[in-house]
Sequence to fold (148 residues):
Amino acid sequence: MTAARRILVLHGPNLNLLGTREPGVYGSTTLQGINESLAALAAELGVELRTLQSNSEGALVDAIQGAVADCAAILINPAAYTHTSVAIRDAVAATALPAVEVHLSNIHAREAFRTHSYLAPVAVGQISGFGPDSYLLGLRALVNRLEK
Ligand code: DQA
Fold:
């Protein structure tokens, strides 16, 4: 598939622990489960995914920078870096690729520090609060955007 149909999917810190991490907040679906659902939807929509989870801000920045060469869009759950990382925001802005920010939980209904996202102003939009469906809704939104 060409770069025009390739989407970078990024999962930030602690999302490798999904399934056992605070299940009352994040549910019981594992990251592998989310990635499998995304892969199935990607096949249906005719796009290719490149997927990375990292606990390291620098690795996420490197992946975002790398997307310029061979991806058309970015689907990202920056996790805790949502609320702290100017570096991830700047990297997404630098790519000029459309990015959708997703969260499993509704970050606007939790602690006050989670309501601010450094990334949101440079993203196409934010989908928050639908559990694993946030990722699937985000992927659909990105593909619709690419096809417009
Ligand atoms: C999260 C919300 C963040 O506030 C938190 O730090 C996470 C996960 C979510 O998907 O709901 O790690 O991004």
Observations:
- The mean pLDDT is 97.
- The longest helix spans residues 31-45.
- The chain has one domain: 3-147.
- Helices lie at 23-26, 31-45, 57-70, 86-95, 133-147.
